[in-house]
Amino acid sequence: MTQGEEPQLGESREFERLRETIAVMREMLETARRQEEAQIQAAVAAQADQIGQLKATVQALREALELAHRATDEAVQDVTSRFSAEIDQMRQIAQALRDKLDAERMGHDRSMQAAIQRLEAENAELRRTVQILRDALERKTSRMK
Prior knowledge:
This protein has a domain at 8-106. 97% of the residues lie in helices and 0% in strands.
């Protein structure tokens, strides 16, 4: 080996080491890239799973809300129907009481009218009797004079 070959050999070894270093670095970078890509894909998959779960939760909440609205509407309709029926029943009772009161009042009025007529008849009879007694008393008084 000559002196001129030695530097070339050294450079060649240096070049080979650099090549190996570059190859190792490339392999490390490729491994890091693959790992990072796998992590990103895992993160994307996890987020997609979370989004799917959130969508399912939102759908379940919508359905529950819809059921709650329907149940509330039915309850309101039931209460409204029940109160309407109770109000109608109360109106019927009130009308029946009014009719009964009117009938009692009319009966009372008839009884009072009959009693007044009886009293007026008795009063007229008593006046006739009093007049007869006065007339008789006047005749007696005039005979006694």
